[in-house]
Amino acid sequence: MKTTLLLLLQLLLLTSTFKQLPAVVAQTVRDTSGDELRSDVEYYILPVITGNGGGLTLSDLGNGTCPLDVVQEQLESSTGFPVTFNPADSNDGIIQVSMDLNIKFSAVTICVQSTVWQLKDRDESTGLRFVTTGGVEGNPGRETLGNWFKIEIYDEDYKLFYCPTVCDNCRPQCQDIGIFVDNNGYRRLAALDDEPFKVMFKKV
Description:
Layout lengths: L1 H19 L22 E5 L8 E4 L9 E4 L10 E5 L13 E5 L12 E2 L9 E4 L17 E5 L2 E6 L12 E7 L5 E6 L5 E6 L1
Antiparallel strand pairs: 1-12, 2-3, 3-11, 4-5, 6-7, 7-11, 8-9, 9-10, 9-12, 10-11
Pfam families: Kunitz_legume (PF00197)
Keywords: Disulfide bond, Signal
GO molecular function: endopeptidase inhibitor activity
C-alpha cells in the first residue's frame, strides 16, 4: 500500500513538473517598430552598423549583364529597394527565425529574370558564392535549393543565413551572408565564414 501511494505521489509530482515547463515557441522576427515581420508587407533591409553603406539594391556590377546582383548601397542615407519575405511553409504569414524564405525585391528591372534572390555557384576568380537574382519563387525542393535563405538572431540583432532545409536529402554548405567589397568598390552580398552582415528590417 505504501509503495503504491509513493508511486502515485511521484507520478503526480512528475506531471506537475511537466506542466510547469515552458512551451517551445518559434521566435518571431521583429521590424524596427517592434512589429512582427509578415509576408504581405514590404521592408527595407538596412545595416545595423552605420558608416559602411546603406540598404540593399540591384547592380549589373558595371558590365551590363543579367541577372542583377544584390549589393549594398554606397550611401548610408539610401534605403535601397524594399523586399518581401515568402516562407516555404507558413499559413499565417508571420516570419519566424530560422524559417526558409524566398527574398524578393519589389522592383522593376530591364532584365527578364525575376528579382527573387538566389545564391550562385562558386565564382572562379574569388572562390565565393554571391547573392544574385533570377531565383524561383516557391516550389521548395532540390531544384530550388539556392533560392532559400533564413533570418537568424546574431548578438541582439539579426543576420541573413544560407542553410536551406527544403530538401531532406540535400547537404548544402551553410554560411552567413556578409558583405564582400570587390576591386571595383561594389559591396556585394556573399556567403562568407567571417563577420556576418548585421541587419534590421524597416517597414515601407
